[in-house]
Prior knowledge:
InterPro entries: CheY-like_superfamily, NreC/VraR/RcsB-like_REC, Sig_transdc_resp-reg_C-effctor, Sig_transdc_resp-reg_receiver, Tscrpt_reg_LuxR_C, WalR-like. This protein is of the alpha/beta class. Helix content is 50%, strand content 9%. Helix 4 (105-115) packs parallel to helix 5, helix 5 runs parallel beside helix 6 and helix 9 crosses helix 12 (268-277). The longest helix is centred in the first third of the chain and has 36 residues, at 3-38.
Amino acid sequence: MSRNEVGTGEVGTGEVGTGEVGTGEVGTGEVGTGEVGTGEAGTDAMSPGPMSAAPATLDPAGPPAAPPAPIGVVIADDQALLRGSFEVLVGSAPDLRVLGTAEDGERAVAVAARVRPDVVLMDVRMPNVDGIEATARICAAQAGVRVLILTTFDLDEYVYAALRAGASGFLLKDTPPADLLAAIRVVASGEALLSPSVTRRLITEFAARPAARPLPALDAVTAREREVLRLVAEGLSNTEITEALHVSRGTLKTHVGRLLHKLGARDRAQLVIAAYESGLVTAGRRAEPLPGALPGRGSGDR
């Protein structure tokens, strides 16, 4: 071996000293900076792979809430064709469920006692026990049930008697299907359903009465609650009342809830009766409107 081959050539300066080992492959290239220092080994090789994924975080909201139970409905009508049509219509809504049907008032009372519905669709003119008496019996036995009266004429002479019996609203039998389903939901929520024609009928009924009867429970009602009661009796909706009194919807609902409790009323329909019977609102003469009040639409809460 010559000095050239070993000392300076392949080993000293070339392959080992400066080239492949010193600066190239080992010093700066593949090992020093590339694969190990910063490149593949330094960053890439240590990054999380499929087997080292970050653990899943728990959902702070918890499992999704169960959907609300369907509104249970009983249908009472002495006409089999109408009764069957209502049953098909109500059963087609995913949030409503027909729990039973009845061909007269006596049967309606029995079915309601057995299945405990949320709403009863009640015809007025039925054999044996009429719809008014059946409404009174059902409402007396079950505080939570709501009765929606089905009428043929919008000025039915039984309007006042039905409201006194505990009915939460009235609906014409030729009402569009979507409106009927919406009405069931309204009364199921605890609101009243009074159309303008029903309100006019109530005014006519009270105008014929000789004098208002005292209502001692009104003594416990605050001035603000009297304002709310007066506007409810005039047929204003919740939205209209909040605008007239400049209060929030939540505050208004608190006032209405207190009125229901203090006056022993089931819903807004009975609040209307209490306001007229006590003389707080005089039939045939509208109470002085508050600043900003809007004309009442007379269709209950919207």
